[in-house]
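Session log. Operator J.P. requested a structure for one protein chain; no other inputs attached. Running the standard single-chain path with token output.
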Amino acid sequence: MTDPQNPPEVATSAGTVRGSTANGIRTFLGIPYAAPPVGPNRFDLPKPVVPWDGTRDATQPGPCAPHRISPFPALDAEPLVGDGGTRGDDYLTLNVWTPEDAAGRPVMVFIHGGGFVIGSKDAPVSDGTNFARDGIVCVAINYRLGIEGFLPIPGVPTNLGLRDMIAALEWVRANIAAFGGDPANVTVFGESAGAMAVADLVASPLAQGLFGRAIVQSGHGRMVRDMDVAQRLVTRLAKVLKVAPTRDGFASRSTDALLDAVQAVSAPKGKIDLRDADGVDPVFGISRFIPVFGDDVLPEKPVDLFARGMGKDVQVLIGSNAEEMNLYFVPTGVRPKLFGLLARWIIGKSQPNARAVMKAYARPGASAGDTFTRAVTDLVFRWPARLYAAAHRGRTHLYEFDWRSPACDGELGACHGIELPFVFDTLSTTTGERGLAGTNPPQDLATRVHRLWVDFATDGSLPWKPFDTETRQVFQLSADKPIQEAVMPAAAFIR
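Structure written below.
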């Protein structure tokens, strides 16, 4: 029942917030965990929130990090990434969903995806209400995106987006008990770019001790860029903006000008070579903006930090979807139009052995588009996730989401992002003629997957054995069984 006459109030370290209650769930939206990143704070470390007097309203989500949402063909993408949100300065904020009368409950902190350039804590698919229904205190955060969050500009602290996430986790440690959560039982989880960030945070020296478990959904720690390579992007963007490649230069341009520049370099014609010394672009062109290594956040690549024992005390659940890249090439109509030469050319922009890749993934009767999509799914998502699991020295479990969406005439399949409505038990947000999950997705699977996440966050329990390179046990979520997975052809190209 909703009680508008007695809205819940909670005292945080910066002041009291007032939320709302419905059906036994208390909801607090738009709570600041850091000061607005504008003015002198725009290209600086996250600063403490200025305390407020009285009680702050926390019933509206507030603004999100500036970004632009482009139309997506054939599917309604708004439930996954939001509608672009409202513009405003005070966007380093978070949402909290908590059971009424909660005390000492497990905590889950969600980091949204979007290629490090779009997305927000308020996307409908990642509403935390049903986690709270099942006894979890659920938190979702915003963080800086694009140029302001992930461009290593000379004179600017690097990896500001990751530093925002760390600041949010520090806020959780300091404040979540007041919302009924246990600060000693925190699980951080994320999807896509959010999963990449979580994978990085597991290995980051600055994040040690802030969480005990991590869930990495369609991500891994390989999508990090060498600082020197990333400087090519800095130089290119400075030319687009017609400024010096410095803090003052970028700070002299408006938010809209920066968003224009992001679109310019992200477009297919926005030519820029971001391959490393081995001729590999670890992102395969999906995003220009990713975390960099070589600073205090990530002194080395995550897998190299694992070799030094970093992150070994964190329990990890990591996985991928069986047909990740279908999201990018099926609704757009690209997959059936790809021919062999074009497919090799696209792969060659990120992987020097393109011809060998296509040969390794060829099947009798398969089109070039089918071969390309399967190959890139493994190269970008599935195989690097296995390498991450093998490198992590703590307990690590691996899953595969294998349910096939019937959307796009049955061709969308187990695509990127399809696990989200099952994890959050929010199938209604992606159901329909243009819904990612089609018209009749299985609620029993959502109930089961959601429960797996709840149980893992509660005490680390999972109904299958940890991953190791000998037994290679992977749990198929739809089939509801573990398998011994064979080494993928991608192993010959990514080590």
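Operator note: The two ends are 54 Å apart (CA to CA).
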